[in-house]
């Protein structure tokens, strides 16, 4: 129990300051203003500086500007949404590249492969394979685009909140 109390006191000490002050002497020597810890002339002006509690000083110098935990949370969520949108856009671009590469491979179809697919000609086999490939990639890309649109709507909602 003693250890807990001692630990609590040690943890709380940085947040409390005693009203301490530092004395500085201001003198003018040969037309130059000088500050010192000790009196530097007979007519030295005494200046007392109080230690500042940084936490309290910060609180009083920054009035509430409408920033709350929710606005910070909203900001962080907007940032997360932007990252997710970028990721989805990159995935769409990657899918489009993959589609183009696979489409190019289909274009090199031989008569033998077309016969195995049951097509009457190479052109029919290429059209059939390209159509099924396009449907698969279009479905995936459309799904990602819908997700992007919903994320943009959510982002707009968060940006409009005061």
Q: How would you characterize this protein structure?
A:
The protein has helices spanning 2-12, 54-61, 69-107, 111-116, 122-160, and strands at residues 21-29, 32-36, 45-50. A hairpin with a 2-residue loop joins strand 1 (21-29) and strand 2. It is α+β, with helices and mostly antiparallel strands and 162 residues long. The chain folds into 2 domains: 18-61, no CATH class; 69-160. A 3-stranded antiparallel sheet has the order 2-1-3, with no helix packed on it. The chain starts with a helix and ends with a helix. The protein has 5 helices and 3 strands. It holds the Pfam family DUF4124. Keywords: Coiled coil, Signal. Residues 1-19 form the signal peptide.
């Amino acid at each position: 129990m003693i250890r807990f109390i001692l630990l609590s006191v040690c943890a709380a000490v940085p947040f409390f300051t005693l009203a301490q002050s530092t004395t500085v002497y201001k003198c003018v020597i040969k037309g130059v203003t000088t500050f010192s810890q000790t009196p530097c002339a007979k007519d030295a002006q005494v200046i007392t500086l109080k230690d500042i509690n940084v936490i309290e000083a910060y609180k009083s110098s920054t009035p509430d500007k409408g920033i709350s935990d929710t606005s910070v949370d909203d900001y962080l969520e907007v940032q997360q949404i932007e990252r997710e949108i970028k990721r989805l856009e990159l995935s769409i671009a990657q899918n489009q590249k993959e589609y183009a590469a696979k489409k190019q491979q289909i274009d090199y179809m031989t008569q033998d492969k077309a016969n195995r697919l049951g097509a009457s000609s190479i052109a029919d086999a290429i059209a059939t394979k390209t159509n099924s490939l396009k449907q698969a990639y279009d479905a995936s890309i459309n799904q990602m685009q819908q997700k992007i649109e919903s994320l943009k709507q959510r982002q707009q909602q968060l940006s409009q909140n005061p």
